[in-house]
Specification:
The complex is a heterodimer of chains A (195) and B (635). With 195 residues, chain A is an all-alpha fold. In chain A, 82% of the residues lie in helices and 0% in strands. Chain A contains 7 helices and no strands. In chain A, helix 1 packs antiparallel against helix 2, helix 1 packs antiparallel against helix 5 and helix 2 runs antiparallel to helix 3. Chain B has a 4-stranded mixed beta sheet. Chain B is mainly alpha-helical. The C terminus of chain B is likely disordered. Classes of the chains: A mainly alpha (195), B mainly alpha (635).
Chain lengths: 195, 635
């Protein structure tokens, strides 16, 4: 009788423990998914802002048309790539394509911003400064969202792998997530400084 | 070097240890009660009738009282906790509104660029922390740098910053400050803290209960003197009081300790969100060096533990009871290069702005006094033109409507405001509304005297008026003084055309009346900055550099390297800070500075009345007043 009670007690404890671990893992996994969605939200917002900026800059820099057109084209490419990824998030090719398009867009944006620097009137414009602040903030948000995603992936993966959670996670077949990495070739290249 | 994840782990562990100690303390109190009652009973019964039972199992009446004690404590705790919860539940924003906070989202589209930036930053940090975006409030009347969070859980959480934080911090620094606050929200500090506070409240109730018991026993003892139970009641009441008092005190100390450990946790969480430790280090260094962090009324509202830096002015118990660790030990963990005070001052210079102000002001007329006259005056102490003009300024006060209020203890403020308020209609309107905001109904705009004189005459008048009002301002109580200083600061900030002379005048005024110990070693940069301000008073603009070199030479008593040397630009707040530091430095240093300043003023062979007055208020602020005409020996 006493023995049976002890076994029962241990069983209850194990089940309770298992349920709490399971719930925690589910919680963390949803957190990761939410963080991933947040990146998409911020990317979209950025794509929406860029045409406004170009519209504003257009009047002041009419003879820089090529640059502006390049920006818009890169933006449209990136937007299209993002839509593709949104439709099919597991498609690694689409993700890679989005990353390439994003790199292209960043390069073009950087070029345009350099040009804006040489128009002091434009820079001092009230609307322009607020638009620039919006854009800076959105770019920050994109990178913070990626960072939050990586942080949440780290949390999730850690609690997946530690003992005794690894027994349960194996049993319920939870899978580890991949970290987002900087894939751009340009960033990885060593910096060259020409004098 | 540890990374921030390890720091988080460490801070969590340490603060949890504090919580364990807190729990142990409560147990120890019950144990102490056991001890007291046991020995108390033995004493009372005397040796002829030793009580039965042993130390751990108390006799029935004592055991009952112990149950009462614990029961009462738990009851009080639950009530206090419910009250705390209700406070947040019924109106989560009440603290913010009591402080005068304004919600940023309420204003619709009419946000200034700074406010827009703040909103963006809060969104960024909430994304980085993975929480829903929290509402933001701004305390528009606070020019110090601080921020805090309030609200009991994620749903009611909100962030409040001072206007000073918006104005003075760079984007990175503001981001770091907000990240720190988000860190407080994520680690649920408010919740834990209200548990601790409820414990302390319950313990203080024990003191009251003990007191009531003793009162009651004392009264019933008066009626029937041979009642043994009233003695027992008195003893028990005494124990209750003792345990409550000791517990409440230790509880406070532990709560402060917990709060300090959680600050480190919030710092390291902030770094996790921004991945930029120097942002927070920079903001903290700014709070330490130039701007303070006090918030008016913060004490009574119990928000200290939620701020970025201590909102209360420091006092006697500040070390033990401080809600925040010393700023420098936080900076050391974040980015040690900010430990050097000059590092931050170097960074916060704005050059063009000041130069523009000088150009504007220098074109106005000045009295030119003959060099030989001045020297004679100095040597033989006879009044020269400058003395006469200065006195004339004072006499002329009678013709203006500012002399009367000057001698009233309350209305002298109007004279000072009258001098500071600009002639330009738009600026004036702004300044008046600032005063109305600060003082409310007490401020009567009709009382502000209109002063229709040239601006350069007005300046000289200011010097005279200010020397009269200093003793009166010292009479004000601490809060009034703070408010008045703030009003002066705000309305002079609103007038963007402050000249060097006004800078010196206002800074000296602040330093003369504000008693504050600033531990700041005057370094080479500080000397250069102080001398630059005085050099720029000089009329002959083309000789500025030459004068500057000469005065530096006087200060160091030797030739100095001129390569890379240039006139420094100083912001008003820096100047106040420097003067404070100077005031607390040695007499020798003050003397050196004064003689160097004198050289700076008279090197160009022209001494204006402005220069004399500037020196006079400056030396007065340092606590070594000079007579109206400079009477230090000049070599």
């Amino acid at each position: 009788m006493a023995f049976g009670l002890i076994v029962l007690a241990i069983g209850v404890v194990i089940i309770y423990y298992g349920v709490s671990i399971y719930n925690k893992l589910i919680h963390l996994r949803n957190y990761v998914k939410n963080a991933l969605a947040q990146i998409d939200v911020q990317l979209t917002r950025r794509y929406e802002l860029i045409p406004n900026l170009v519209e504003m800059v257009k009047k002041a820099m009419s003879h820089e048309r090529e640059t502006l057109e390049a920006v818009i084209q890169a933006r449209n490419m990136a937007y299209g790539a993002q839509q593709k990824v949104a439709g099919n998030p597991t498609n690694t090719d689409a993700v890679k394509e989005l990353q390439l398009a994003e790199n292209q867009l960043n390069t073009q944006m950087g070029r345009m911003m350099l040009l804006v620097e040489s128009y002091p009137d434009l820079k001092a414009n009230q609307n322009m400064t607020s638009l620039m602040e919006e854009l800076t903030s959105t770019e920050n948000k994109v990178s913070f969202a990626r960072q939050a995603y990586n942080d949440s992936v780290m949390n999730y993966n850690t609690s997946l792998e530690v003992f005794p959670n690894n027994i349960f996670s194996g049993f319920f077949s939870f899978k580890a997530f991949e970290f987002l990495k900087v894939e751009s070739e340009e960033v990885k290249k060593p910096l060259k400084i020409a004098f | 070097m540890k990374n921030f994840f390890e720091f988080q782990k460490l801070a969590r562990k340490k603060s949890n240890n504090v919580l364990i100690v807190f729990g142990l303390m409560l147990l120890a109190l019950v144990f102490a009660f056991n001890l007291c009652v046991y020995y108390g009973l033995q004493l009372m019964h005397g040796s002829e009738d030793p009580i039965s039972g042993d130390f751990w199992i108390l006799p029935q009446p004592a055991f009952d009282t112990q149950i009462c004690l614990v029961g009462f404590f738990i009851l009080c705790f639950v009530l206090a906790y419910i009250k705390q919860l209700m406070k947040y539940r019924s109106d989560p924003m009440s603290i913010v509104f009591q402080l005068g906070g304004i919600a940023l989202n309420d204003r619709g589209t009419k946000l200034t660029s700074k406010e827009q930036k703040l909103l963006n930053i809060v969104e960024e940090m909430c994304i980085a922390a993975g929480i829903p975006v929290v509402p933001v409030f701004v305390l528009e009347n606070e020019s110090t740098i601080n921020a805090f969070t309030s609200g009991h859980n994620l749903a009611t959480a909100h962030i409040v910053t001072t206007q000073g934080a918006l104005d003075e911090l760079t984007r990175d620094e503001l981001q770091a400050v907000i990240a720190h606050e988000v860190g407080h929200i994520v680690s649920a500090d408010v919740k834990v803290n209200s548990v601790l506070l409820s414990c302390i409240v319950a313990l203080t109730f024990l003191v009251t209960l003990g007191l009531k018991m003793m009162e009651f026993a004392g009264r019933s003892r008066g009626r029937s003197s041979k009642d043994n139970s009233s003695v027992y009641l008195i003893v028990i009441g005494l124990f209750f009081m003792l345990i409550g008092a000791v517990g409440a005190f230790l509880g406070r100390v532990l709560q402060s300790l917990f709060s300090r450990k959680r600050e480190y946790l919030a710092d390291s969480l902030g770094v996790q969100f921004t991945r930029n430790p120097s942002g927070l280090a920079g903001a903290l260094a700014k709070i330490r060096d130039i701007f303070r962090s006090e918030i008016y009324k913060a004490d009574s509202l119990n928000i200290a533990h939620m701020c970025i830096a201590n909102p209360l002015s420091s006092g006697f118990f500040s070390g033990l009871m401080a809600s925040h660790p010393p700023i420098n030990s936080r900076i050391e963990l974040l980015d040690p290069k900010y430990l050097d005070p000059s590092y931050n001052l170097e960074r916060s210079r704005t050059s063009e702005e000041l130069n523009q102000r000088i150009d504007k002001r220098n074109k106005k007329g000045q009295f030119v006094i003959d060099q030989t006259n001045i020297l004679e005056g100095i040597l033989v102490q006879q009044p020269v033109m400058a003395n006469i003009l200065a006195k004339e300024g004072l006499i002329n006060l009678d013709n203006l409507n500012i002399s009367k209020p000057l001698h009233s203890d309350i209305e002298f403020k109007y004279s000072v405001w009258g001098l500071l308020i600009s002639k330009e209609e738009s600026v004036k309107k702004n300044q008046i509304s600032i005063l109305q905001n600060l003082y409310g109904d007490k401020f009567d705009s009709a009382k502000v005297p209109k002063i229709d004189i040239d601006s350069h005459q007005k300046l000289e008048l200011s010097a005279s008026v200010f020397s009269i009002v200093i003793p009166q301002m010292k009479k004000l109580n601490e809060d009034d003084k703070k408010l008045f200083i703030k009003s002066i600061k705000l309305i002079s900030d609103a007038d963007s055309n402050l000249s060097e002379f006004e800078l010196i005048l206002l800074a000296s005024l602040f330093v003369a009346i504000e008693v504050k110990v600033v531990k700041y070693k005057i370094n080479f940069l500080a000397v250069r900055q102080i001398l630059s301000v005085f050099v720029k008073l000089s009329q002959s603009k083309d000789k500025h550099f030459e004068i500057f070199v000469a005065s530096l030479k006087t200060f160091y008593g030797k030739d100095i390297k001129q390569a890379g040397l240039k006139l420094e630009d100083v912001k008003f707040d820096d100047l106040v800070f420097l003067f404070h530091g100077l005031k607390n430095s040695s007499v020798e240093l003050k003397q050196h500075i004064c003689s160097a300043v004198l050289v700076a003023l008279k090197q160009d062979q022209i001494l204006t009345l402005k220069e004399i007055e500037a020196f006079r208020v400056f030396s007065m602020a340092l606590g070594i007043p000079s007579p109206p005409v400079i009477a230090l020996s000049i070599t």
